Amino acid sequence: MSEKRNGARRQSGGPRKAQEIFDATLDLLAEKGYEGLTVEGVAQRSGVNKTTIYRWWPSKGALLGAALIGARQLELTAPDTGSLEGDLEALLHTIVTLLTTRPASDIAVSVLGAVTHSPELAAHVKDFLADRIAREQPVFDRAVARGEITADIDRMLLVDLLAGATWMRVALRQLPLEKDFAARAVNTVLNGARAAG
Amino acid sequence: MSEKRNGARRQSGGPRKAQEIFDATLDLLAEKGYEGLTVEGVAQRSGVNKTTIYRWWPSKGALLGAALIGARQLELTAPDTGSLEGDLEALLHTIVTLLTTRPASDIAVSVLGAVTHSPELAAHVKDFLADRIAREQPVFDRAVARGEITADIDRMLLVDLLAGATWMRVALRQLPLEKDFAARAVNTVLNGARAAG
Q1: Residue A9 has pLDDT above 70, yes or no
Q2: Judgement on whether residues B83 and B63 belong to the same structural domain of the protein
Q3: Among residues B122, B66, B170, which one has the least CA distance to residue A173?
């Protein structure tokens, strides 16, 4: 059982139509909120039999956890531009796109907003963010290897400053981003981290 | 009419029980969401006549806008510790308290989360944040006067990096803050802004 679930989370051992199931799960979440999300609804929208879904994910919570981590719409690949500055700018642009471009933004913004209303959803978002920051580690490993930063730099602080500022500006202040927002934010945070390190 | 409403927004010319009305408004918002918030409900909870409330705020939206800006629970005073570093750390501590200590956190976290579901609420939060950043300007004015930063520093970027990282850590990652989180975040952002400036 746990082997199956781990496999599904890595997208390697899920049912054949895993992406369709994940899409339907996130679409329904964005439309109806966590309370309105049901395995029945996911089955109907994805055209996959309900018992197949339950075979892989025993509950709505387990399904949502897998969907958040496995969904292609919420993908954050680790960029490799040759410099930490370039990589972080690329990462920030991806986050901006995720928060501002449909259909991903409908999902991302409603999921992130809804965490404050559902402790269960919040736990899945927590896992999702832990997964995503784990995938960004190569960016920092390469920067250390290139001598751009020291090994003891606080990686999570850097990511949270950048991602958080983007969330503030786009979702809460609802201001258009200046063209050089990503460059200036990365520059500020990186210079500061180097000076502090 | 507009004189009255401006007066109410500044808490100088509202009805006698303005704070009780604002309290009831934000409590109901935290409990029932924007859809569940009604002027009738506010009247009942605050013990103020409905017609009195309507006299000052012609709609639920106008009332909520005034409550967000005027509420003592969401107050962010501009600190004056003698240094920009000290002021920003104090500000960050206030934001952390706001996001983690009840009852303010119930209101703040649910309001900030709900903006993604209600464009009307989002517009009020936007005004609220604009009001709050306007009130922090003395912090930066004094820092410029003391020669700690140059006048052209991007104040909103600094505030958004700091407030955003706090939001990421507390609301989304749901991690306990390290004791020196505020000091390290301020140090990083401030050093970076100086290097860039």
Answers
A1: no
A2: no
A3: B122
Q: Which of B185, B193, B195 shows the shortest C-beta gap to A157? A: B185
B115–A172 C-beta distance less than 8 A: yes
A161 and A111 belong to one structural domain:
yes
Closest CA to A49 of A64, A39, A35, A37: A39
Contact B188 A157 (CB under 8 A): yes
CB contact under 8 A, B130 and A157: no
CB of A114 within 8 Å of a chain B CB? The answer is yes
Tallying the residues shown for chain A, one arrives at 197
Query: Residue B79 corresponds to which tokens in the numbers above?
Result: 């600190």
Q: Pick from B72, B91, B114: which residue ends a domain?
A: B72
pLDDT computed for residue B111 by the predictor: 78
> d(Cα B68, Cα B74) in Å, to the nearest integer?
7
What mean pLDDT do residues A135-159 have?
Answer: 95
- Among B114, B173, B191, the residue with its CB nearest the CB of A113 is B114
Does this complex have an ipTM over 0.90? no
Tell me: do A36 and A127 sit in the same domain: no
Residues B147 and B46: beta-carbon distance below 8 Å: no
Q: Which amino acid is at A33?
A: G
In whole angstroms, how far apart are CA A148 and each of A1, A85, B52, B141?
Answer: 44, 9, 63, 34
In angstroms, the CA B124 to CA B138 distance is 24
Per-residue pLDDT, averaged over A38-61, amounts to: 94
Q: Is the pLDDT of residue B5 over 60?
A: no
User: How many other CB atoms sit within 10 Å of the CB of residue B176?
Assistant: 10
Domain that holds residue B25: 2-72
- Cβ neighbours of A89 (radius 10 Å): 20
Tell me if residue B113 falls in helix, strand or coil: helix
Per-residue pLDDT band at A197 (split at 50, 70, 90)? low
Does the beta carbon of B74 lie under 8 angstroms from any beta carbon of chain A?
Answer: no
For chain B, how many helices (H) and strands (E)? Answer: 11, 0
CA angle A190, A194, A197 (to 5 degrees): 135
Identity of the residue numbered B59 = S
Residues of B in contact with A122 (CB under 8 A): 174
Same domain, A21 and A42: yes
Q: Six-digit token pair at B16?
A: 């006698």
Burial (CB count <10 Å: 0-12, 13-18, 19+), residue B174: middle
